[in-house]
Design a protein that fits this description.
There is one protein chain. The protein has one domain. The chain has three helices and no strands. The radius of gyration is 21 Å and the shape is rod-shaped. By secondary structure, it is mainly α. Helix 1 packs antiparallel against helix 2. 85% of the residues lie in helices and 0% in strands.
Length: 95
């Protein structure tokens, strides 16, 4: 399970990197373009930028929470207890 959580954290970090690149590309495109004639497009692009930043912040938050869980004493205790129970049953814990 810990490996699954680490994989989830890694996946979130990759998605966050991709979002950051997309946001930078979008911002660069907006700076390169003259947007003054079309106000509706300006508002729509601004909303997209805001949503992208929100997604980036949420992925940061989730990655922080997952890291906190993996580093918590409760999690480590649960992992050790599960390993002990599996050993007691004669099974080998998966890593």
């Amino acid at each position: 399970m810990q490996a699954d959580l680490l994989a989830a954290i890694h996946s979130l970090e990759q998605q966050q990197d991709q979002l950051r690149v997309m946001l930078e590309d979008l911002s660069a495109t907006l700076r390169a373009r003259d947007l003054s004639p079309d106000r509706a497009a300006d508002r729509q692009i601004a909303r997209l930028e805001t949503r992208m930043r929100g997604i980036e912040q949420r992925t940061d938050h989730i990655a922080g929470q997952l890291t906190g869980i993996l580093e918590s004493r409760i999690w480590r205790t649960l992992v050790k207890a599960a390993a002990l129970l599996l050993r007691f049953r004669g099974e080998r814990p998966s890593k």
